[in-house]
Design brief:
Layout lengths: L3 E5 L3 H23 L2 E5 L6 H7 L9 E5 L1 E3 L9 H9 L5 E2 L10 H13 L7 E4 L16 H6 L6 E4 L12 E4 L1 H5 L4 E6 L1 H13 L6 H8 L4 E6 L1
Parallel strand pairs: 1-10, 2-3, 2-6, 3-5, 6-9, 9-10
Antiparallel strand pairs: 4-8, 7-8
Bound molecules: 6-phosphogluconic acid.
Keywords: Hydrolase
Pathway: Carbohydrate degradation; pentose phosphate pathway; D-ribulose 5-phosphate from D-glucose 6-phosphate (oxidative stage): step 2/3
Function: Hydrolysis of 6-phosphogluconolactone to 6-phosphogluconate.
């Protein structure tokens, strides 16, 4: 994207309030325009305070459909399940939260095809994709390594795929399914929320490297057609 804007906050709480406000506005605009909103929300730890805040917003939640931007291949309810974390915040409000992985399976490619079929049934493009970033430059579950090319350069119509990061990420050492590059960069709004100096350095480096960045987040940012907002707190 030619337009990447950083939004800096004093702390994670302040960031959560601002990002929740922006997400609320995006959801309201979609509901005003066509009576419904479809958003992809990141997993991991960073967004938990954002979702706590957002869940308290006065929204017509039954018109809101939520998918995770990526999912760890574990049974629903597992502490590593992103949709379980997201569901805790939004299902009680009446939102439709769609699990894109329904069971634990050894076959990540099959899980990816199933997740893609679920995404194909959604209104598209997504109204919002909210991403996190790892210190190794991964975003969603597009990791540097064996699946990088397929996740970034696979067929245009593919919205999700299964990946087997190598090495498996320490915070959740399981295969994953993830939105494809195409699914991410076509979203009507693209936002990133990260904390800490290390992730900031990685993102700044990735932006400077442009389309040839070895970091998946660098490729995603270079390919994004729309302005991207990066929200950051120490
Ligand atoms: C996941 C993610 C992933 C995450 C980053 C940052 O399922 O792990 O969606 O892309 O956003 O790994 O995670 P933290 O916020 O926990 O640091």
């Amino acid at each position: 994207s030619d337009e990447i804007e950083w939004w800096d906050y004093d702390d994670a709480k302040e960031m959560a309030e601002a990002v929740a406000g922006d997400v609320q506005f995006i959801i309201e605009s979609a509901i005003d325009a066509r009576g419904a909103a479809v958003v992809a929300l990141s997993g991991g730890k960073t967004p938990i305070p954002i979702y706590d805040k957002l869940a308290r917003a006065k929204l017509d939640w039954k018109r809101v459909t939520i998918v995770p931007v990526d999912e760890r291949i574990v049974p629903l309810g597992d502490p590593l399940s992103n949709v379980t974390m997201i569901g805790k915040a939004f299902i009680p409000k009446g939102a439709r939260v769609i699990p894109i992985v329904s069971q634990s399976t050894a076959d990540h490619k099959a899980a990816g095809r199933a997740a893609d079929a679920i995404m194909q049934d959604l209104h598209w493009p997504l109204d919002l994709c909210l991403l996190g970033v790892g210190a190794d430059g991964h975003t969603a579950s597009i990791f540097p390594g064996p699946d990088y090319d397929e996740a970034l350069n696979g067929p245009r119509e593919r919205r999700a795929l299964g990946v087997m990061p190598d090495p498996l990420p320490v915070e959740a050492p399981v295969p994953r399914v993830t939105l494809s590059r195409q699914g991410i960069v076509t979203a009507r709004a693209l936002m990133i929320a990260v904390t800490g100096a290390e992730k900031r350095r990685v993102i700044e480096q990735a932006i400077a490297q442009g389309p040839s960045s070895p970091y998946p987040i660098g490729r995603v940012l270079a390919d994004a057609e729309l302005p991207v907002d990066i929200h950051w707190a120490p």
